[in-house]
Amino acid sequence: MGPIIARARSSHAIVSTFAAGIATRLLIFVMTILVARHLSPEGYGQFTFATGCAMLIAQTAGLGWPMLMSRLIPSFRAQSDWSSLRSLLRWGDIVVLSAAVVATAIVASLSLFPGARSEIAIGLGMALVLIIPSAINLARRSQLAGARRPALGILLDEGVPPLILIAALVIGVVADARHAVILLAISTALAAAAATVALWRATPREVWAAPAQGQPAVWMGMAFPLLLGLLSKLVMDRMDILMLGPLAGFEETGYYGSAYRLTYLVTFPQVMLMTVMTPMLSEMHASGRLAAMWRAFGLSSIFALATSVPASLLLFIFSDEIMTLAYGAQYAPAGSTLQVLAIVQTLTALSIPCASLLIANGQGRSYGVFSLLGLAVNAGLNLVLIDAMGAAGAALASLAGAALIFSGQGWQILKLYRTSNMKD
Fold first, then answer.
1. CB atoms within 10 A of CB 207
2. What is the DSSP string of 108-128?
3. Single pTM value for the model
4. Distance, CA of 55 to CA of 227 (rounded, Å)
5. Rounded to whole angstroms, how far apart are CA atoms 187 and 180?
6. CB atoms closer than 10 angstroms to residue 247
7. Are 358 and 367 in contact (CB under 8 A)?
8. 212: left (phi over 0), alpha (psi -120 to 50) or beta
9. Distance between CA atoms of residues 254 and 48, nearest Å
10. Residues 6 or more apart from 217 whose CB is under 8 A from it?
11. Could you read off the pLDDT of 130-186 as tens digits, one per residue?
């Protein structure tokens, strides 16, 4: 009876997570189109630069703890280790909030630096209001995933902010990029507050009655390799936008950001699936069910391939038509950028199950190393290609980095599989 209940629970989690993912991606897509059409390519570039900086800093402020919590919370729940779970939740909040405050102060100093270009300083200043609420919201999402509420975490993290901004755009209260960012920050803070209440309700009552006894120093050591991998991936995802602003201007940033947001739809099925599968893979590994773990990984990889390639082909073949239809004729120059980014997102989609398996098996260091190598390649090529090709050059740099990460992760997983078979 137990396995049947577990399978039913897993199926419900996957279905609800996908439903939440579809809803939120549609909201983000609608928000992107409305913002891009409301603003010029330069104004949308400013909005993209500010939100990209804020999200990168907010996710970095977690110092790897959100990913660690999505792995450890299921383990502590399975072991009924309520004292460790309470300590983990407490220290996770302390780390995330403290780092977010420090990061906000650093960005504020950079925006006021006398040598900063005025438009870059404005973009950094706009990002300030988003950092702290975004950091809290992202941490709550991972915690809710570990607490078996992944769909709710997704809805609050990615659904509430765009929904409120869409309403503001329809009403007509958004005058420029700065207004859009401020409204997004307010709605993100509301979502973070709701997620905090949801986490409290989803956590077993025994947790709050238990003394907080854990190993924060050990957890910090476990989180650091995850931070390196996450930071490398995040910086690579947003590096193009962050470098396009200073090197090529906000118009090229707007072209890249609009094309990237379309390709972002390619990876949502894999992200949604792995939100559920990562804790499950961790439980399978912890309980020694290696055969089940490898079967789940294989099915996830097939799913990633089937859900990414067809969409990427459509974006590649009809790139000019899709850009014009979505954003208007003023965004037509981004068609070539969309073609390259469609390939990038296919590789990224295939890398998502690989990253989850490595994290679940305690291979966070390997995940971090390959991500750092991909980041270095992307950064180096950006310096060369952005100056010559603008947004299209940035997309090519991303392609090289994504290819390196995917091949490195695949090589590491092959070694892991061979080791696993030798143990069997």
1. 21
2. HHHHT-TTS-HHHHHHHHHHH
3. 0.67
4. 14
5. 11
6. 17
7. yes
8. beta
9. 7
10. none
11. 999 999 988 888 888 777 787 788 888 888 999 999 999 888 888 888 889 999 999
